[in-house]
């Protein structure tokens, strides 16, 4: 019996490094199935029920939500050509990083979350740091969905009641949806959510081609569309736009709790390719059309770009998608906590009072925090951008680069193409650091500018501040 086998027998939750074939490439871990977090057994809840098509739709809903609503305005800061290249480049990198993390997770089968992967390469302190960043990121992401749902309800009701009540209604709905215990059971919600957002955005794309002038432009007199192939923005505007496009597809760290519930975890790559192919194609076509017809007058979020009537139709159809987005963010964050609390307990897969109390406590607690964030921070759009730079850059770009370097150390002195790949992944880590620092600086400067011109409303007020830019 090897040392690793002894450790595994003593600690079923232990995560050990996968064996290597000597060239830096990892051996397939079909033998590592016994180390999966969720195991199949008599008298236990079977969590591993998600097929690869369902997984791809869950991934689509995680990615395709608020991102598509912000890219057109980012294009207006960069121009059509740089904007399109940014969409293609960042989505390629996001896909690459998702595949790296998926392969790493499947080679270290005890990893349930990105924090577990951090534990493999950096130890306990790194695991706790990454876990905290993961929770912060998706709790605030859930709050953005709550805020988006309240914006939709305000648009549909002409602000009939205080925004805080709409926030509470959205939070309660999200708590009920997120508390469904298994990803398989919320798969049908992701179909509804993705289709609703896709149709809503498509309606706006068609709508902007049929109106005389954009909704945000002056409605009388002459106006300049200002559609440009190339724009030369200031650093603050440019880095904020770049960070927005990057973050639109960077939620890949939410994919990995799903792998533990897939029937065949090795099908993960197929799910990612399908998801990111649809996302990239849709982002590119939708954003280019909206920017072409709205120019500098593109609204953020873009659902408001085609006038009040289409805005109501789009928000009415897309409301389900906004709720499901927050549901998924709460679910993945709560599942991380749930597994952390019960991983070595018989209650992890047992229908017990402890099992349900911990699960509902996780979803309810995260929903409460998300509600407080959504209701208490009037400058929420800026906070989302700030957390995107601070959290998504290291989680979705820097950490995957280091995971690859960790498992392919021999490439540093290998063949020329291997050396190129090795230093290319180090370059990706450096890029993540630049985006984190530069994006944070850009958002902070935007905050300062917004305060100076009085664009910021009061916290916990009844005013709808979600569109503050």
Automatic annotation (TrEMBL):
Subcellular location: Membrane
Annotated region described as Disordered, given as residue ranges: 1-23
Domain Amino acid transporter transmembrane as annotated: residue spans: 49-444
Keyword Transmembrane helix among record annotations: yes
Domain of life: Eukaryota
Signal peptide segment: none
Residues that span the membrane, as ranges: 49-71, 129-149, 161-180, 186-211, 272-293, 313-332, 353-377, 383-405, 426-444
InterPro entries the record matches: AA_transpt_TM
Keywords: Membrane, Transmembrane, Transmembrane helix
Membrane topology: Multi-pass membrane protein
Family according to the record: Belongs to the amino acid/polyamine transporter 2 family.
Entry protein name: Amino acid transporter transmembrane domain-containing protein
């Amino acid at each position: 019996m090897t040392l690793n086998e002894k450790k595994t027998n003593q600690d079923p939750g232990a995560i050990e490094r996968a064996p290597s074939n000597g060239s830096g490439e990892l051996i397939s871990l079909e033998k590592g199935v016994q180390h999966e977090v969720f195991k199949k057994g008599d008298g236990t809840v079977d969590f591993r029920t998600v097929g690869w098509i369902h997984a791809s739709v869950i991934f689509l809903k995680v990615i395709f939500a608020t991102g598509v609503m912000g890219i057109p305005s980012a294009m207006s800061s960069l121009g059509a050509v740089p904007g399109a290249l940014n969409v293609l480049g960042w989505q390629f990198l996001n896909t690459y990083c998702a595949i790296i993390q998926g392969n790493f997770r499947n080679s270290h089968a005890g990893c349930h979350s990105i924090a577990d992967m951090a534990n493999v390469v950096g130890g306990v302190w790194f695991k706790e740091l990454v876990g905290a960043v993961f929770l912060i990121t998706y709790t605030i992401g859930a709050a953005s969905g709550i805020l988006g749902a309240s914006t939709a309800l305000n648009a549909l009701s002409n602000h009939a009641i205080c925004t805080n009540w709409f926030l509470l209604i959205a939070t309660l709905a999200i708590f009920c949806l997120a508390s469904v215990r298994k990803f398989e059971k919320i798969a049908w919600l992701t179909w509804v959510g993705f289709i609703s957002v896709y149709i809503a955005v498509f309606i706006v794309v068609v709508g902007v081609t049929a109106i005389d002038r954009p909704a945000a432009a002056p409605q009388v007199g002459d106006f300049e569309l200002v559609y440009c192939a190339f724009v030369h923005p200031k650093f603050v505007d440019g880095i904020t736009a770049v960070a927005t496009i990057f973050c639109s597809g960077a939620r890949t760290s939410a994919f990995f709790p799903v792998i533990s519930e897939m029937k065949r975890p090795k099908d993960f790559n197929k799910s990612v390719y399908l998801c990111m192919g649809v996302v990239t194609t849709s982002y590119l076509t939708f954003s280019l059309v909206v920017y072409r017809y709205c120019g500098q007058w593109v609204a953020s979020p873009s659902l408001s770009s085609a006038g009040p009537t289409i805005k109501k139709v789009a928000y009415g159809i897309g409301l389900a998608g906004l709720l499901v987005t927050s549901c998924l963010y709460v679910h993945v964050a709560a599942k991380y906590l749930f597994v952390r609390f019960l991983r070595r307990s018989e209650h992890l897969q047992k229908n017990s009072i402890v099992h349900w109390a911990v699960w509902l406590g996780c979803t309810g607690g995260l929903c409460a925090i998300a509600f407080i964030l959504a209701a208490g921070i009037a400058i929420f759009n800026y906070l989302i951008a700030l957390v995107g730079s601070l959290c998504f850059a290291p989680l979705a770009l820097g950490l995957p680069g280091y995971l690859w370097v960790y498992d392919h150390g021999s490439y540093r002195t290998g063949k020329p193409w291997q050396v190129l790949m090795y230093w290319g992944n180090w370059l990706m880590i450096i890029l993540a650091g630049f985006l984190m620092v530069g994006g944070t600086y850009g958002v902070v400067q935007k905050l300062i500018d917004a305060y100076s011109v009085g664009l910021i409303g009061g916290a916990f007020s009844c005013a709808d501040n979600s569109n503050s830019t």
